[in-house]
C-alpha cells in the first residue's frame, strides 16, 4: 500500500496511481508464468533464494528513493515492477516445491496452514503499514519490508536441494497455448475465468483509497484499515465457501455473489464516511472467494 500512497502524495493523480498498480500487476502475472516455467526446469531452492533476495534489493531501492529530497517517480514505477515480478516468481517456485518439502500425504494440511498465514498476514500488514505511514512515512514501510524479506531469505537457506521433477520438456509458449485452447473450448471453465477477471477489475477500486483520504479526511492508519478490509472479506469468503459442495446450483450462487459485488462497488461511491466504505471492498472479495 505504500507505493500508491507515495505516488498519490507526489502527483495527486489517481491515473498515476492506477498506472503503477497496473504495471505491478502485469509484472506479477508475467512473474507467475515465468516462475512456473523455471520451476519445472531448474533447481528450485536457487530460484527461491534468488527471487527473495532480488525482491529485498528492490525494497532497499524504494527506501533509499523515499529518503531523497525529491524522490524519483520513474524509480518508483521501475522498482514496483521489479518487486512484483520477482515476488511472484519466488512464490511460484516455493509452491512448486511444497510437495517435496512436506510430502504429498501432508499436502492438504500444508495448504490449509499456508492459506491461514497468508490471510492473516494480508489482514494485519495493511494495518501495520498504515500505522508506519502515520508515524514514520513511506521510507519506514519500505525499510521494514526489505528487512523482513532478507530475514525470511535467511530462513530459506536451510531448505534442502529441490531439483525439478523428471518430465518431458515442452516449449513454454506451446504449454501456454495449450492452456488457452482448453480455456476457450470449455464454456464452464472459461465462464468462471471471465467472472474472476471481472471481479478482479472491480476490486481495483482500492486504487482510489489514497485519493479518497482527502475527501473522507482519513489518516494513514485509517487507510490501512480500508486496505485490510479487502483480505478480511477474502478470508471470510474462503472460510464459508466450503458450503458450495452441498449447494444444488453452485453456478447460480456464483453469479448472484458476483452481481452482489458489483452492487457493492456502485454503493461505494455513495458512502459518506470511510467507516461505511470498509464494508464494500470486503463484500467484493467475499464474493470473489465464492
What would you note in describing this structure?
The structure is a single chain. This protein has 290 residues and is mainly α. It contains 13 helices and no strands. Helix 2 packs parallel to helix 4, helix 3 runs antiparallel to helix 4 and helix 5 runs antiparallel to helix 10 (220-240). The radius of gyration is 20 Å and the shape is globular.
Percentage of helical residues? over 70%
Say what the CATH topology of the largest domain is. Answer: Growth Hormone, Chain: A
Give the strand content. Answer: under 5%
Helix count from the secondary structure assignment: 13
Q: H/E series, N to C? A: HHHHHHHHHHHHH
Rg to the nearest angstrom? 20 Å
Q: What average pLDDT do the residues reach?
A: 76
- Compute the separation of the termini in Å: 25 Å
How many beta strands in the DSSP annotation?
A: 0
Query: In the CATH classification, which architecture of the largest domain applies?
Result: Up-down Bundle
Main sheet specs:
none
Q: Say which CATH homologous superfamily of the largest domain is assigned.
A: MFS general substrate transporter like domains
The low-confidence runs, each spanning 5 or more residues with pLDDT under 50, are 286-290
CATH class of the largest domain: Mainly Alpha
Number of domains: 2
Shape: globular
Amino acid at each position: 500500500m505504500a507505493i500508491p500512497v507515495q505516488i498519490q502524495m507526489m502527483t495527486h493523480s489517481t491515473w498515476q496511481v492506477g498506472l503503477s498498480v497496473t504495471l505491478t500487476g502485469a509484472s506479477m502475472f508475467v512473474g507467475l508464468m515465468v516462475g512456473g516455467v523455471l520451476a519445472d526446469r531448474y533447481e528450485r531452492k536457487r530460484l527461491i533464494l534468488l527471487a527473495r533476495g532480488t525482491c529485498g534489493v528492490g525494497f532497499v531501492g524504494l527506501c533509499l528513493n523515499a529518503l531523497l529530497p525529491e524522490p524519483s517517480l520513474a524509480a518508483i514505477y521501475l522498482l514496483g515492477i521489479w518487486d512484483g515480478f520477482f515476488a511472484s516468481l519466488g512464490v511460484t517456485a516455493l509452491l512448486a516445491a511444497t510437495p517435496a518439502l512436506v510430502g504429498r500425504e501432508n499436502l492438504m494440511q500444508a495448504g490449509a496452514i499456508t492459506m491461514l498465514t497468508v490471510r492473516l498476514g494480508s489482514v494485519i500488514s495493511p494495518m501495520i503499514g498504515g500505522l508506519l505511514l502515520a508515524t514514520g512515512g513511506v521510507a519506514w514501510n519500505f525499510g521494514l519490508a526489505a528487512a523482513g524479506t532478507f530475514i525470511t531469505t535467511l530462513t530459506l537457506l536451510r531448505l534442502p536441494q529441490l531439483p525439478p521433477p523428471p518430465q518431458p520438456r515442452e516449449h513454454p509458449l506451446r504449454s501456454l497455448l495449450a492452456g488457452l485452447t482448453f480455456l476457450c473450448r470449455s464454456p464452464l471453465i472459461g465462464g468462471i475465468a471471465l467472472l474472476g477477471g471481472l471481479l478482479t477489475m472491480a476490486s481495483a477500486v482500492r486504487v482510489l483509497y489514497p485519493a479518497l483520504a482527502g475527501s473522507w479526511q482519513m489518516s494513514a492508519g485509517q487507510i490501512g484499515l480500508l486496505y485490510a478490509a479487502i483480505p478480511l472479506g477474502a478470508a471470510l469468503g474462503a472460510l464459508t465457501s466450503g458450503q458450495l459442495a452441498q449447494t444444488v446450483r453452485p453456478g447460480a450462487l456464483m453469479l448472484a455473489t458476483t452481481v452482489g459485488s458489483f452492487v457493492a462497488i456502485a454503493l461505494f461511491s455513495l458512502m459518506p464516511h470511510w467507516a461505511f466504505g470498509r464494508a464494500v471492498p470486503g463484500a467484493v472479495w467475499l464474493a470473489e472467494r465464492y
